[in-house]
Amino acid sequence: MTIKNIFTISLVETKSGRPSMKLVLDNGCQKAFHSIYDPESEAMTVVDAFSFNGQGILVILGLGLGYHVAELVKRFPEAAIIIVESSPEIYEFAVKHGNISNVKVKSPHTGGVGRCAGEDMVRFIVGLPSDEALKEITKIQVKAGMPPLAVFTLSPAVAAFPNYYNPILASLKNTISVSLWDRIRYPKFKEETAKVALIDFGYFLTVEVEKAIRLLGHKVAKVPVKKGEEGDVIVSRLMRTLLEFKPDFFLTINHLGFDEDGSLTSFLKSIEMPVASWYVDSPDLIVKAFKGNVSPYV
User: Fold this and answer.
1) Residue 32 pairs with which residues in a beta bridge?
2) pLDDT(233) > 60
3) CA distances in angstroms from 191 to 209, 227, 231, listed in the order given
4) Which pTM value belongs to this model?
5) Dihedrals φ, ψ of 65, to 5°?
6) CA atoms within 13 A on the CB side of 259
7) Torsion region of 34: left, alpha or beta (phi above 0 gives left; psi -120 to 50 gives alpha)
8) C-beta separation of 71 from 152 below 8 A
9) Which residues lie below 8 Å from residue 66, measured CB to CB, with a gap of 6+?
10) Which of the residues 98, 202, 227, 267 could staple to 94 if both were Cys, CB 3.0 to 4.6 A apart?
11) 1-39: per-residue pLDDT in tens?
């Protein structure tokens, strides 16, 4: 769900001289996004109460005028930071009047993902529907090797647009609570019987490979993949296999299922998951053309 044209924005003068922001929603409800006394001090106080070790990815829900963003970026320089803002209008308002100049903001395209100029550690996701914003967060997390996630919410933004932010918040909290990182990095090859996750494109050869593995006395879990499926869909399926089957390694034919950029390879490397690729055809096209798929675990 994207929030569009259901509010008016105005600046509010504060006693500290720094502007605050107020929204009037279409139902007449007014939402003040920052303190009317000192929004910068308020941001410092709120961040003081936020528990985060500074490692991994920090997702910030809601931009406002960015006082909390500037404070979080300053305090956690090692973290990768993703700011999710439902409204392009609020984003543009913050660029013009807010406190995000120190974040080196480069304006993202509406309905897309932007990042800071010359800086990959801070990204903006602006104007995407909730489910698409979640997909972008997942892609970033996978490409980074599934580091832990933390979530900071700008409460007035969530209160103003609950139908947008709450689904994202619930999904991210679920990801955090299951401690995925600890559950997908586990010892391999501890039994005489191997557990093989077989990437399955529905080819006849895959059926024969599965039969052969079972005849050898090993266990197989097929991971179905369809041509043209996006990486985040494939990763979601792989994650279920990792959590439920706990394979010793993944097996693919001709590197099927792996993206050209090597995001999946990087993810599997980060969790120390071996991959065997049987090249029925020449490996030159993949190995020489797409070096992102070269890994000591492949």
Assistant:
1) 22
2) yes
3) 21, 34, 31
4) 0.71
5) -95, 5
6) 19
7) beta
8) no
9) 94, 98, 99, 100, 103
10) 98
11) 445 558 899 999 999 999 999 999 988 899 999 999 999
AA identity, residue 279: Y
Tokens of 142: 């996978």
The burial of 210, by beta-carbon neighbours within 10 Å (0-12 exposed, 13-18 middle, 19 or more buried), is given as: middle
Give me the DSSP letters along the chain: ----S-EEEEEE--TTS--EEEEEETTS-EEE-S-SS-HHHHHHHHHHT----S-SEEEEE--TTSHHHHHHHHH-TTSEEEEEES-HHHHHHHHHHSS-GGGT--PPPTTEEEEETTEEEEEEEES--HHHHHHHHHHHHHHTTS--EEEEE-HHHHHH-HHHHHHHHHHHHHHHHTTHHHHH------SSS-EEEEEE-S-HHHHHHHHHHHHTT-EEEEEE--TT--HHHHHHHHHHHHHHH--SEEEEETTTT--TT-HHHHHHHHTT--EEEE-SS-SHHHHHH-GGG--TT-
d(CA 288, CA 283): 8
Sheet containing strand 195-200, edge to edge, reads 219-224, 195-200, 249-253, 275-278
Give me 88's structure tokens: 């392009």
Tell me, what's the pLDDT at 120?
57
